[in-house]
Amino acid sequence: MKIGYLIYGPSPKEILTKYAILTGKASMVPAWSFGLWLSTSFTTNYDEKTVSYFIDEMVARSCPVEGSLELQAERNDQQANNK
Fold first, then answer.
1. SS (H, E, C) the chain
2. pLDDT for 14-29, tens place per residue?
């Protein structure tokens, strides 16, 4: 036996509110996930100077960069081990 739900309301916001009440609200993602995201979708020319500049500028603007710093530290460790 399948049970279905029909959630309706006067607006999309109201419908989403009712859906969240039924299913539970999503938890907040960690602060670091809002930080710097670099992708090779547009360019692959991210040298250390460029990435460091991006991170420095984000720190100056109080943007979260913890994830970026951890990844940069890992990369530096890997490079040091490969020498």
1. CCCCCCCCCCCHHHHHHHHHHHHCCCCCCCHHHHCCCCCCCCCCCCCHHHHHHHHHHHHHCCCCCHHHHHHHHHHHHHHHHCC
2. 999 999 999 998 888 8
